[in-house]
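$ ./design --mode recover --in tokens.txt
reading tokens...
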């Protein structure tokens, strides 16, 4: 780990001001991903700004009938919140399917959304990786790609986004609240929060340098059966090969977001119109334009079969 300095922010405006003043500064809260990346020297911030004392650790109802989740709410607390379990069960189930209990006790809502890919070539600094070092190449293409993306990928990167919670947030149309270095606040629909890799896979979100996530807001509950089904290589503490986050209504209509197959939580709203026709029809829309590698082509079939299991579960 390379030397760095550390300081605690006294307020959100203080945090973003420091991020704007100190070149190479990064925010830290739970640190469950960032510290790992620092040990491997994939991340080498010059200064860490500790935001744990900013008070963004509450869950409160909104005027519109939804919930506003502070950026620092721990994953364990979010999964256990009775309002979340009752009205947004998809989020609770996705959170419990991810990581370990110890990690969920430390990981925060914002940190979960911002965690980096688990592509093995990103973590191996002896390999070329456009996400880690722009312009260096992508060793994953033509390499061991079992865990990697099949849709939304590019010639520069086939990494997947690792978050389970983000899949649920995407299905529920959450919005992300931020504050920038100049104090300007904005709200970003989660559909626009993650970028596709294109030729710049190192740019992963819509956040500007030094912009701080302050909360995530969920809209009014939509009812239905909330189901999160995660397929992985072992029964716990593993990232998804394919995961399905779905909210399915009694008439068979619904929403579906997919994890483990793309650089961002993958949702195709036009495909959802085919929900009453079954998994095969929906999967065809979700995977339109897919570009699998030899090692991960099985995910095309796995998406359809996992979605079929989810639809069957919704029918009871």
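writing sequence...
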């Amino acid at each position: 780990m390379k030397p760095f300095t550390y300081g605690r922010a006294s307020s959100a405006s203080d945090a973003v001001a420091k991020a704007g003043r100190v070149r190479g500064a990064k925010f830290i809260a739970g640190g469950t991903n960032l510290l790992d990346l620092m040990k491997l020297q994939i991340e080498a911030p010059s200064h860490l700004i500790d935001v744990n004392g900013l008070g963004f650790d509450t869950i409160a109802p909104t005027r519109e009938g939804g919930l506003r989740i502070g950026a620092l709410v721990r994953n364990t607390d979010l999964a256990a919140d009775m309002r979340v379990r009752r009205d947004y069960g998809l989020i609770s189930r996705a959170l419990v399917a991810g990581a370990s209990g110890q990690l969920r006790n430390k990981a925060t809502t914002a940190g979960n959304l911002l965690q980096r890919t688990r592509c093995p070539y990103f973590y191996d600094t002896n390999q070329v990786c456009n996400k880690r070092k722009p312009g260096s190449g992508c060793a994953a293409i033509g390499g061991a790609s079992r865990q990697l993306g099949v849709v939304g990928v590019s010639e520069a990167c086939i990494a997947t986004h690792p978050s389970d919670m983000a899949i649920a947030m995407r299905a529920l149309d959450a919005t992300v609240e931020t504050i920038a270095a100049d104090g300007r606040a904005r709200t970003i629909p989660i559909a626009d929060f993650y970028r596709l890799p294109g030729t710049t896979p190192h740019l992963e979100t819509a956040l500007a340098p030094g912009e701080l996530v302050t909360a995530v807001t969920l809209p009014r509950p939509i009812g239905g059966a909330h189901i999160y089904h995660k397929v992985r290589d072992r029964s716990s503490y593993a990232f998804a090969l394919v995961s399905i986050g779905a909210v399915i209504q009694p008439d068979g209509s619904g929403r579906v977001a997919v994890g483990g197959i793309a650089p961002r939580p993958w949702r195709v709203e036009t495909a959802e119109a085919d929900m009453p026709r079954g998994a095969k029809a929906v999967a065809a829309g979700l995977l339109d334009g897919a570009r699998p590698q030899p090692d991960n082509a099985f995910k095309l079939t796995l998406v359809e079969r996992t979605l079929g299991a989810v639809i069957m579960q919704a029918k009871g």
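exit 0
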